[in-house]
Hints:
Radius of gyration: 30 Å
Number of helices: 2
Shape: elongated
Oligomer: single chain
Amino acid sequence: xxxxxxxxxxxxxxxxxxxxxxxxxxxxxxxxxxxxxxxxxxxxxxxxxxxxxxxxxxxxxxxxxxxxxxxxxxxxxxxxxxxxxxxxxxxxxxxxxxxxxxxxxxxxxxxxxxxxxxxxxxxxxxxxxxxxxxxxxxxxxx
Length: 142
């Protein structure tokens, strides 16, 4: 997003100029004040909107960090009760998963995608790329 630039004054009155030039320069200078004020206010609104976006993104980063911390500090999965957001690592494949809700887990997270979110971005990216490649191959008739 680009930020509105406050325009420069085209004429700045100089007391050393002739009275006629000075008077014209003052008139031009004064006529440009409103445009500069409006641009300054617009710029302030844009900066405030960007600041709000940064705050939202910072909150998202904090949430992601908490998820990473939970994943790094995850316990080995065992059948039992899990709470929304709780992490566990699979003894089948060693990867970490996060519970999608409150439930009683009877299946290893690696085979229970309905209840567990895979926290392994490389594996998830591979699945996404494979799915898109299959869709593209179907689209082009390969």
